[in-house]
Amino acid sequence: MIxxxxxxxxxxxxxxxxxxxxxxxxxxxxxSGCPPILNVYNLRKDQKExxxxxxxKLISRIVKKQEIKNLILISKWAYYTDGNPFGKNLNxxxxxxxxxxxxxxxxxxxxxGLADTLKNYEELKTNIFIVEQVPHQVINPKLTYYRxxxxxxxxxxNKLTHYSLGLELHxxxxxxxxxxxxxxxxxxxxxTLINFDDIFCNKEKEKCLVGNEKYSFYFNNNHLSTNGxxxxxxxxxxxxEKF
Length: 243
Description:
By secondary structure, the chain is α/β, with parallel strands linked by helices. It has a single domain (2-137, 167-204, 226-240), classed as 3-Layer(aba) Sandwich (Rossmann fold). The protein contains ten helices and ten strands. The chain has helices at 12-21, 52-66, 103-123, 141-148, 153-163, 167-173, 175-187, 197-200, 226-230, 233-240, and strands spanning 2-4, 28-30, 41-42, 70-74, 93-94, 127-131, 165-166, 191-194, 201-202, 207-208. The strands form three sheets. The protein has a five-stranded parallel β-sheet, covered by helices on one side. A three-stranded antiparallel β-sheet has the order 7-10-9. Helix 1 crosses helix 10 and helix 4 (141-148) packs antiparallel against helix 5. The longest helix is centred in the middle third of the chain and has 21 residues, at 103-123. The mean pLDDT is 95.
């Protein structure tokens, strides 16, 4: 099963083809703004219609009933702990169905909920694969390409690099989530982390690139395009072939 928020959509075509190639089948489930975390309440205004709390409970019941052994979780993780790279637009979580919360409480809910999630699936003997969040660009890709386009290939690529997310800002933005994930990775033997920084970030240029002169890796500032998701194929293949 592949479960998550809107970030799963970008991966669907690639993962669907990849699973077919390995003669595997499964379920693809998710909803925009719903983190794949048990026992937390999403404080978005649409939660009466998109009850993330109940959705996570349902997924857990399906995993148990169907004896699903491999669960891939994909999410915009920092959205629920930090917001965007500038600390804005944070989607607050809570351990209780209340309206009032803050960044500290949202982080606490995230950490506790993720711990509950991993413990739950450990008891169900399910392997968990957490796909770490891709770099969150600060400029919309369309605007970046409008600003960067040049018939001189060298100049074109230089401008794309210039407008791409800085590696330092990327690391700062996802620092809290990465610390939590690394801590849990040492604790839970059924957990595997999948990180794409080596694909999208260039240490020498100190940038996490928005794309190349052929295509954008993103279709907005935080969701991968189909082409961008295809760049992750080999990492998923190394995992799926072992299912």
